[in-house]
Structure formats: structure tokens, C-alpha cells
Amino acid sequence: MNAFEIAGLLAATLTTGSFVPQVLHTLQRRSADDISSLWLVLFGAGIALWFVYGLWLNSLPIILANAVTFLLLMVIAWIKFAPRPAVREIA
User: Fold this and answer.
1) Spatial separation of the C-alpha atoms in residues 28 and 45, rounded to whole Å
2) Which residues of 10-47 are buried (b: 16+ CB within 10 A; e: fewer)?
3) pTM recorded for the entire structure
4) 3-23: per-residue pLDDT in tens?
5) Where do the domains of the chain lie?
């Protein structure tokens, strides 16, 4: 592994890791209402394309970072788009 791959893995760890607090916050609140649906779709598409690009280049940092980021993004998307049970009002 050369210095460029090490730098890439460090960059991937930092940028992907920066996404973890948002996922934890969303899980704790059980809501992603304040997150834009359009942002989720565009960011998800971009991450998926970066993943494909990483496969094409056979670049481990790009592949790993985008696979993990996509999984984290799917957690937020699930919380945002999954149907919620109806809230029953007590009469």
C-alpha cells in the first residue's frame, strides 16, 4: 500500500465517519423530517456512482468509503420514508 492509498483511506475514514453523528442523531430522534428528500436522492445517486467509479478503478478507499456511506444514508432514508404507525388519540 502506497502513501496515496493511505491518504485515500484516511480521507475516506474522516468523510464517512463525519456522517455517523447525523445517522445517530436521526436514530435517536426517530425522525428525518428536517432532511431534504431531494438531497437524499441526489446524494445517494452520487454515492452510488462514486462506488461504481471506485470499482472501475479498483480503488479500495473509494469503494469502501462509498459502500459504508451508502449504507449509512440508507438508514436515514429508511427513517425518512418508512411508513409510520398511526398515532392513536386517547379520547
Assistant:
1) 26
2) eebeeebeebeeebeebeeeeebeeeeeeebeebbeeb
3) 0.84
4) 988 998 899 899 999 999 999
5) 30-82
